[in-house]
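#random but structural
TW: two for the price of one
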Amino acid sequence: MLLSDIFNHDFSHVHFIGIGGISMSGLAEILLNEGYRVTGSDMKDSPIISKLRKKGATVFIGHDDNNLSDADLVVYTDAISDDNPEFIEANKRGITVIDRGSFLGQLMRTYENSIAVSGTHGKTTTTGMISIILDKSTLDPTILLGGELDQIGGNVRLGKDSYLLAEACEYKGNILKFFPSIGIILNIEEDHLDFFKDLNHIIETFTSFAESIPKSGYLVLNNDDVNVAHIKDSANCNIVTFGIENDSTYQAKNIEFDDNGMPKFSLVIDGNSYEANLSVMGIHNIYNSLAAIASTHICGVPLETIINSIQLYTGTHRRLEHKGSYNGIGIIDDYAHHPTAVKATLSSIQKIAKNDVWCVFQPHTYTRTNALLDEFTESFDNANKVIISDIYAAREKDTGLVHSKDLVNNLKERNVDAVYIKDFEDIAGYLLDNCKEGDIVLTMGAGDIYTVGEILLDKVK
């Protein structure tokens, strides 16, 4: 597999703007493995960037037009803006410039088989489950994961060019740039409303994604999701369904949870029943596991291997990740940043809580917080105490549209015990002063809120 095969050009030096992103770094690592010269830039250093440097990449901290050097291809992340100096310089010089989604989509074309995992929630977890199953199979896949999974050594697994597994995010219509032979749609809800007009626009985008799968390919759909149901009749490929409530090709029945909140269920396929166990909490993860089981079964992995392997999945980093404990108080971190995901995560945690659940939430982007403020207000009922930090801006600027205090005020009106605390050090101190044995501290959000748990553990030490 050569980069020249993808673009019909002889590229040798590829520069990544925003190379520290989880997906961008994975693409960079694939190219390093193929012998390309890789450079990149990001706003801050990280363990991921250190890993890339060890593999031979040159990475600059900060964006500057001089960083491009003699690059003949520039790949950029969605997080950068049009006024990025490297983006401007690349276009000024006439260097070939391509966004991350298009680059991944073209890369996908070079594989005989590809699996794209899409949906509003659960993409990284489902991709992680599939990763474990395929890693235990004989297929030797290449994997690009939107999180870090210890069992594959991080966010990338380099395999042969027969199978590629990747996440497919809908933001900016990126899923329409991919060309999978197996497409998965986990669920569809309102999100990324800084790009999409409304829910109908989102459904239309997923529908177009479904229509792009070739006739010989497969579409794996959540049969219990009302918005996904709109898509069934649009696809011109093989349809495989999964679900709990409705009859599906792959269905979970007789669901039970053990004392640690881990589910077991009867996996029903074509009238035959098999016992399945998971090592991650929550009903939402049963849905994720069904999608993983269905897609790998389509690939020809024996069902016995699938069932045995999926129990080995204990989660990627930042997905219900146990960070540590002190004085009988557990600290857990989760990436949830959409109302439905927040609700599902808190429901899972309540199943194992002995005393109070302290939810430390960092809203992610102003547009999402404002558009879904009412939904967020209804998402914290399973938390005993809620601490809200400042909104994580990500790619946006603060225009005064909304503030974390607005969410706190709404929660208080709903009789939720909520407080706004701006500084992470102050949050850690507040928790240290008020938490008691048997409590659970859950940090939650897609930004850097996970550092609160680390600060708290450091204070205890």
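TW: number two ↓
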Amino acid sequence: MLSRSTNDDSETSCKPEQILQGAFQVFLQYGYAETSMDRVAAQAGVSKHTIYNHFQGKEGLFVALIERLVMRHFQVEFGCALPEAEMPERVLRRLAEILLARMDDAEYIAFVRLMIAESDRFPELAQLYVRQVIQCGTAVLSAYFKACPVLTVPDPEITCHVFFGSLISFILSQEVLHGKHIMPLEKERLIHYLVNLVLVHHHRNDT
């Protein structure tokens, strides 16, 4: 369980992460609708004013949590673009491994379950995830397919949907929906297949 800090509000260096840790616990406990800035402030050990200064409100907190739990790992590894100079096999494999590593992150899995549970009452939450994660990732990968000199992908957008969709479906079916004991599948087997599915265009280009 994440512990809350008792530092004074004047100490601001760790405040954003401190607030996000508190918000995460409150979202999980109460759901999106019942999460209030009062509850987040109490859990994080800060004032409401401090929360609004950093995140502007509940939706801002939710977006920041998506970035913290998902995008940070992608951005640390790749930045804003995939490296065109590297061999496609290495780039695609590393991308898939980073995404599937989220399966071992209990916080991320709990967050996805929360988002799914709240998506009927608050469809904008699921749409935030789609925009921040799937749409962003698809745009980066599509740009890579178009720019990579050794790949000739006939439909980059559809190829991105197949690539990302397969990885996300794997995370959902294996971890989020507790399916790994019913229909187990090895990560490496999926990664190998998806990378080869894209690389077939590389081989055709070479012949």
